[in-house]
């Protein structure tokens, strides 16, 4: 290649001096704007956002070429001033610099060891997921109108068990630990929201002293959120220590690490606190987004629901004697196809998380400078009509062969690969999340009928089908969730009571 070609940047929208395209990017559904640019300029789009070179990858091929294959140089994260530096979430995994940072490596090792593909087959972890699913069903049974809240509470409870062996009360309103974690997570969501704090766009603002800002400005907010995060680090950790001293600690992520270290130093303790908090920040909002999207899809596609229920009835038998378990999985290809389609139809993290390039690179005919922030537009890939015909339709059949068994999917056709990100930053909770969603969906379909709510005249209330947020959730909708039979209802009540 001649030098002239090799020095070119990928095409992309021209921006204003310094701010670049910052003001062309909307506050919500940034992936749609990025997708529009992909259609106009190609699958690798370059631009500048507040002086920061930025690359948007709109195809699986480009994302895999750069973030998977060249993962050694594409696995850093950009600085997050408010959420990362000022509030302190950069002590955890999601905002940690990588890939050569020893702390990052230790976090990834821990996650792999505890919830990697093999660890996720551990009978204790599977039993924990089945039990929490039974409790989730009990919530739907008791309070079907508030269905939107239940998956979130249930995921929160599951992660508290996984991370600390802590058993949250089923009615979590009064649970002190749930409250501490929820408050810290609200800070995480607010501080991470793109554009919510000016300091993220103008980092020099972090040098302005707090007393110069009205009511302390963002610095006072950051100080409060940091205190809340510290509580989230310390309180559940204190619980595990107490339980250990009393000789009754339950298996958990924190316990395994403390036992591995035998005599943990304060630095070890700080690291495991941060790792456990990262489990929560990665998992708390994502799995519930998939469960709510699933409920919406079932309302829209009653025939999908019926086919899934026939599959479950065949495997479990007609007499409501037990609920689905992970051992049924191989016999439930249609349920598995629904899980894949949920991950595709509403990817919980449509833009993934930003990666950052740590040295200059050449890709195709272009030079990509060190420090470039890279977004892989997961949404674009999962809505590609060439790979997924009529992509807005919820259609599990796309993953099945004629006889109803699952197709062998290639990586670019597999939402359970694309939806979890790329390279050395790929979601470390993906196997755990897939299992939670699978058992949640199978059990819910076995026990409940999901249908449109009715208005006062008995007519169907049609839901608005729209998804919003950086972690993308369906906008609120009404829905009718009722047990398929009285036997189904008592089976749920019995199963949840036994645990
Ligand atoms: C439907 C469920 C989920 C989806 C779609 C999802 C998706 C993602 C994506 C796209 C990323 C960014 C990957 C990248 O940078 O390329 C990510 C990162 C992460 N996820 Fe998940 N996730 C889910 C559930 C979970 C769960 C249940 C946990 C923990 C138990 C978790 C923990 C994390 C963590 C800690 C990171 C940061 C990894 C790093 O920075 O190295 N996620 N996830």
From TrEMBL:
The gene is CYP5037A8. Its cofactor is heme. The chain crosses the membrane at residues 430-448. This is Cytochrome P450 monooxygenase. Keywords: Heme, Iron, Membrane, Metal-binding, Monooxygenase, Oxidoreductase, Signal, Transmembrane, Transmembrane helix. Pfam families: p450 (PF00067). It comes from the Eukaryota. Belongs to the cytochrome P450 family. Its main location: membrane. Heme binds at residue 427. InterPro entries: Cyt_P450, Cyt_P450_CS, Cyt_P450_E_grp-I, Cyt_P450_sf, Cytochrome_P450_fung. GO terms for cellular component: membrane. It is found in: Membrane. It is a single-pass membrane protein.
């Amino acid at each position: 290649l001649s030098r002239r070609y090799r020095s070119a940047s990928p095409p992309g929208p021209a921006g204003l001096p310094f701010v670049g395209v910052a003001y062309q990017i909307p506050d919500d559904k940034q992936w749609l704007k990025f997708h529009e640019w992909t259609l106009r300029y190609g699958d690798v789009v370059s631009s500048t956002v507040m002086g920061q070179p930025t690359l948007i990858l709109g195809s699986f091929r480009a994302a895999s070429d750069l973030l998977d294959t060249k993962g050694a140089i594409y696995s850093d994260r950009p600085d997050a001033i408010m959420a990362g530096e000022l509030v302190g979430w950069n002590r955890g995994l999601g905002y940690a610099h990588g890939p050569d940072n020893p702390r990052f490596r230790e976090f990834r090792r821990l996650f792999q060891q505890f919830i990697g593909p093999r660890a996720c087959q551990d009978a204790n972890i599977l039993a924990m997921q089945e039990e929490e699913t039974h409790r989730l069903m009990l919530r739907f049974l008791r309070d079907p109108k508030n269905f939107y809240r239940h998956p979130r509470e249930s995921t929160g409870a599951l992660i508290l068990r996984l991370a600390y062996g802590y058993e949250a009360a089923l009615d979590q309103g009064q649970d002190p630990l749930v409250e501490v974690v929820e408050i810290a997570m609200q800070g995480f969501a607010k501080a991470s929201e793109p554009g919510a704090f000016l300091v993220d766009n103008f980092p020099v603002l972090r040098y302005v002293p707090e007393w110069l800002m009205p009511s302390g400005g963002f610095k006072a907010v950051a100080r409060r959120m940091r205190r809340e995060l510290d509580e989230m680090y310390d309180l559940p950790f204190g619980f595990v220590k107490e339980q250990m001293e009393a000789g009754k600690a339950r298996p958990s992520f924190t316990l395994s690490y403390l036992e591995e270290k035998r005599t943990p130093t304060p630095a070890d303790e700080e690291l495991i606190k941060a790792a456990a908090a990262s489990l929560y920040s990665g998992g708390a909002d994502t799995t519930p987004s998939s469960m709510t999207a699933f409920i919406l899809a079932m309302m829209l596609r009653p025939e999908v629901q019926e086919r899934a229920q026939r599959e479950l009835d065949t495997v479990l038998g007609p007499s409501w004697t037990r609920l689905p378990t992970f051992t049924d999985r191989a016999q439930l290809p249609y349920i598995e196809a629904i899980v894949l389609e949920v991950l595709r139809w509403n990817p919980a993290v449509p833009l993934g998380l930003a990666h950052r390039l740590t040295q200059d690179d050449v890709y195709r005919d272009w030079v990509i400078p060190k420090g470039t922030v890279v977004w892989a537009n997961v949404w674009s890939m999962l809505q590609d009509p060439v790979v997924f015909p009529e992509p807005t339709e919820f259609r599990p059949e796309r993953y099945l062969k004629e006889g109803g068994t699952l197709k062998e999917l290639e990586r670019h056709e597999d939402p359970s690969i694309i939806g979890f990100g790329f390279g050395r930053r790929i979601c470390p909770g993906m196997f755990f999340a897939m299992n939670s969603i699978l058992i949640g969906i199978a059990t819910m379909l076995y026990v409940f009928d999901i249908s449109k709510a009715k208005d006062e005249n008995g007519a169907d209330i049609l839901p608005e089908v729209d998804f919003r947020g950086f972690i993308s959730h369906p906008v609120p909708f009404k829905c009718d969730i009722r047990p398929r039979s009285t036997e189904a209802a008592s089976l749920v009540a019995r199963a949840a009571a036994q645990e």
